[in-house]
């Protein structure tokens, strides 16, 4: 009997540690996930930067009414609108304050992309056109196409990896990576399905590779790089938590848990051309390359940041061409999977974006930053809603 109990106990512990079973147990990621994983602490700044708070503000009374109405029953935890370093709107759900930590999900990718830019600025990485296998030579044996894969391809999600991001199977790579699988081992087994730079495909494993390269070239952990090169220099007011896999390695593609105000600061950094209170944290050259309107419109994704979208749809190609002539524009006309024709107009706004519509949106023209954090819901298309708000504030 005693032996039976010992075996049963061991089995329970094994099952509890099993990544697929964790994914079934928790089913859908949510704001409580930081408590389910091991984390490292990213220490706050000793010289915090604080946005001014001018909310409520009668000047933006109409904006308040509009957003308040739209956010009802949308599982939004925090919604901040910041203009010229001043909070002009804030929404907090009943159980949240501005001091609560919220999960970034894939917004973390934009932080890792920025750390990559800093490494390039410091010549720790000579160029993003260098081959990945220069730093991770062990990958060369997996597929001969690694001989043509550059860091820039990885930054722009144009690597061609054989990695399915859209699977909700508990045994799939993306689910296993989120729930704690050995990420270094997963990277070591990567193969290709496309020639690099031929197809844009959003794959979280790209960011994990960037993290491994950063650690190789700097001799420091990614969490240390975030703390030293971004979190403290940007005046973070609170410590952050960054989740680890089952082997104690950082989940670089996701899982920074921090306050909305501190997440907003990555937006402020890019809004100000990489300069923070007189110090150039990352070069303006990198920021300009990342946020260039032509690149954003064409590629949708640059250096781990998303472009927003500004599409015009038509029932046929002739209507689209006629509208382009009317507006004296020269954008290409494309056909969508549903049969409609469209063209994508040049965009100037961009965002760090995560699952369930987490976002730090930046509008350089209007000097606006919007942070939305919360749960999954279908009532409102937050991607369109956030950019509509951001473009309307003068």
Quaternary organisation = single chain
Number of contiguous helices: 14
CATH class: Alpha Beta
Say what the CATH topology is.
Beta-lactamase
Sheet with most strands: strand arrangement: 2-4-3-17-16-15-11-10
Contiguous low-pLDDT stretches (5 residues minimum) are 4-17
CATH superfamily: DD-peptidase/beta-lactamase superfamily
Keywords: Hydrolase
Protein name: Serine hydrolase
GO molecular function: hydrolase activity
InterPro entries: Beta-lactam-related, Beta-lactam/transpept-like, Diverse_Enzym_Activities
Briefly summarize what is shown:
This is Serine hydrolase. With 394 residues, the chain is an alpha+beta fold. Helices cover 35% and strands 17% of the residues.
Give an overview in words.
The chain is an alpha+beta fold and 394 residues long. Helix 4 packs parallel to helix 8 and helix 4 crosses helix 9. Strands 2-4-3-17-16-15-11-10 form an eight-stranded mixed sheet, with helices on both faces. It is globular. The termini are far apart. About 4% of the residues have low confidence. The chain is built from 14 helices and 17 strands. It has one domain: Beta-lactamase. This is Serine hydrolase. InterPro entries: Beta-lactam-related (IPR001466), Beta-lactam/transpept-like (IPR012338), Diverse_Enzym_Activities (IPR050789).
């Amino acid at each position: 009997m005693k032996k039976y109990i010992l075996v049963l106990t061991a089995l329970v512990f094994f099952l509890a540690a099993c990544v697929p079973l964790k994914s079934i147990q928790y089913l859908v990621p949510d704001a409580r996930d930081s408590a389910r994983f091991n984390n490292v602490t990213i220490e706050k700044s000793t010289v915090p930067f604080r946005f001014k708070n001018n909310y409520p503000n009668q000047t933006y009374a109409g904006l308040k009414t509009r957003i308040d109405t739209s956010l009802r029953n949308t599982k939004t935890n925090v919604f901040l609108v910041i203009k010229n370093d001043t909070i002009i709107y804030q929404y907090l759900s009943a159980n949240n304050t501005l001091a609560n930590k919220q999960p970034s999900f894939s917004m973390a990718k934009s932080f890792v992309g920025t750390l990559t830019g800093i490494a390039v600025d410091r010549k720790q990485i000579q160029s993003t056109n260098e081959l990945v296998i220069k730093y991770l030579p062990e990958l060369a044996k997996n597929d001969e196409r690694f001989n043509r894969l550059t860091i820039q391809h990885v930054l722009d999600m144009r690597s061609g990896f054989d990695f399915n991001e859209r699977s909700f199977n508990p045994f799939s790579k993306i689910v296993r990576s989120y729930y704690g699988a050995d990420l270094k081992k997963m990277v070591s087994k990567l193969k290709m399905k496309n020639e690099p730079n031929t197809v844009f495909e959003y794959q979280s494993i790209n960011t994990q590779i960037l993290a491994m390269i950063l650690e190789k070239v700097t001799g420091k952990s990614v969490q240390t790089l975030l703390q030293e090169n971004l979190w403290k220099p940007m005046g973070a007011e609170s410590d952050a938590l960054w989740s680890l896999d089952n082997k104690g390695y950082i989940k670089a593609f996701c899982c920074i848990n921090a306050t909305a105000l501190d997440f907003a600061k990555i937006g402020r950094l890019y809004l100000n051309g990489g300069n923070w209170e007189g110090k150039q944290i990352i070069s303006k050259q990198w920021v300009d390359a990342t946020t260039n309107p032509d690149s954003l419109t064409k590629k949708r994704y640059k250096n781990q940041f998303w472009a927003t979208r500004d599409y015009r749809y038509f029932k046929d190609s002739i209507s689209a061409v006629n509208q382009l002539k009317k507006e004296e524009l020269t954008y290409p006309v494309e056909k969508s999977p549903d049969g409609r024709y469209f063209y994508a107009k040049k965009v100037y706004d961009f965002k760090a974006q995560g699952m369930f519509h987490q976002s730090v949106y930046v509008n350089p023209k209007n000097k606006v930053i919007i942070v939305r954090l919360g749960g999954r819901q279908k009532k409102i298309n937050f991607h369109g809603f956030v950019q509509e708000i951001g473009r309307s504030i003068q």
